[in-house]
Design brief:
Layout lengths: L1 E5 L5 H11 L3 E6 L11 E2 L7 H14 L8 E4 L13 H10 L2 E6 L4 H9 L9 E2 L2 E2 L3 H12 L1 H12 L2 E4 L2 H8 L6 E3 L20 E7 L4 H4 L1 H14 L4 E7 L3 H8 L4 E3 L9 H9 L2 E4 L3 H6 L9 E2 L4 H13 L4 H15 L2 H16 L10
Parallel strand pairs: 1-2, 1-4, 2-3, 4-5, 5-8, 8-9, 10-11, 10-12, 12-13, 13-14
Antiparallel strand pairs: 6-7
Helix pairs in contact: 1-15, 4-5, 4-7, 5-6, 9-13, 11-14
Length: about 375
């Protein structure tokens, strides 16, 4: 098959492409590399800044590469906001792709209208990016994004593409749950892919001093929850200076992030998530214990009944402190959790096996489409 993956979040499309290529398919990844993370891609669609001049340069670049974005058997966009433009400005490109390719699928891989609506009004989640219980999380990011995601450009683009596309694929339980009511026949759950060929797993030994790793995205700290987790981690380190230390990393490219992560025993990530992210799974594949999203819904959607490697934390300061303190006071737990983490990623997230699930999903929709005989 000829496959186009358009857009990037945390290396998802780059990693999926590697899995698909191992299965013999021809894949093109077109993206901005997810900004400063700079993930590899075949067609570069980077926009360095939000300036008007950089927007014009991106549009000119798009005009030049459009002929390379047609003739594919399958196109998957990372989200309704698959280019670094206002979401509604992505719609003409979407319609171009729709007319000139086979099946077109949308990723439910991040915040969009249906996820935000479910957070605010769906009574689905016990907590989320936007609310804890019935209380709205008043943060700079939430204030700036909420109106657009529910009423503005993002809302418009999400509704149009979700209705028109051939299928919607969710990578986390949270996103799958958000689409179950509006699109029960269209939504599919497929786990995140991790390229295990490039990772050397190492079961952690009992450390004399627990090395806690936390990655900070400065502009999204309030979304990821690191603005809460980091101060609590520092309190734990202050209480037990001989038993733990902190490796804090901010806004570094992916390769440097991986290098610094290798020495960690425990990684902190995604306070408001029910499921582990790409960064968490990367850490787990290496044998690093993750403190973050590991709610029962995560294990249920994977039909996992035995492995419980993730130290699940609630968006509650006492709960976070207590669970970090337990790891510091009982480092003998780390080897067992480390071993389970490696087994968990191998079982559920191997990029080749995940790619097979994508192929099955695309094929089911493709059987109802006219044959695509052209090639890119």
């Amino acid at each position: 098959m000829y496959i186009l993956l358009l857009g990037e979040y945390s290396g998802l499309h780059h990693t999926l492409a590697e899995g698909l290529r191992q299965l013999g398919h021809q894949v093109t990844v077109a993206s901005d590399g997810d900004g400063w993370k700079n993930y590899p891609r075949d067609i570069d669609l980077n926009r360095p800044t939000d300036s008007l001049w950089d927007a014009i340069k991106l549009l000119w670049k798009l005009l030049r590469v459009l002929p390379r974005l047609k003739g594919y058997d399958v196109v998957q966009i990372i989200s309704p906001h698959f280019l670094r433009l206002k979401p509604h400005r992505c719609l003409p490109i979407y319609h171009y792709l729709r007319k000139r390719n086979g099946g077109v699928f949308m990723g439910a891989f991040g915040t969009d209208y249906y996820y935000t609506h479910a957070c605010m009004y769906g009574n689905i989640y016990r907590y989320s990016d936007y609310k804890i219980g019935d209380h709205f999380k008043e943060t700079p990011t939430n204030r700036s994004q909420l109106k657009d995601e529910l009423e503005g450009s993002m809302a418009r683009a999400t509704k149009v593409i979700a209705k028109d596309c051939d299928g919607i694929i969710a990578c986390l339980w949270e996103y799958y749950a958000a689409y179950q009511k509006p699109y029960p026949q269209k939504i599919h759950f497929i786990p995140l892919p991790i390229d295990l060929r490039k990772i050397k797993p190492c079961v952690r030994k009992v450390p004399q001093q627990v090395n806690f790793f936390i990655g900070i995205q400065t502009r999204r700290s309030d979304v990821k929850g690191t603005d809460i987790m980091l101060p609590i981690l520092r309190k734990v380190a202050e209480k037990y200076p001989e038993r733990c230390r902190i490796t804090e990393v901010s806004n570094v490219p992916y390769a440097e992030y991986c290098r610094l992560l290798d020495a960690a025993d425990v990684q902190l990530d995604q306070l408001y998530s029910y499921t582990p992210s790409m960064n968490s799974l990367l850490a787990m594949a290496k044998g690093i214990v993750v403190v973050g999203g590991g709610e029962p819904e995560n294990y249920e959607i994977l039909r996992e009944e035995e492995l419980r490697p993730i130290v699940n934390v609630l968006p509650d300061e006492d709960d976070i402190f207590r669970k970090l303190e337990e790891l510091v006071l009982h480092p003998e737990r780390i080897p067992t959790l480390s071993e389970q983490s490696i087994a968990y990623v191998k079982k559920h997230h191997d990029a080749v096996e995940v790619a097979r699930q994508y192929l099955l999903c695309w094929k089911k929709a493709d059987e109802q489409l006219p044959p695509n005989t052209s090639q890119p």
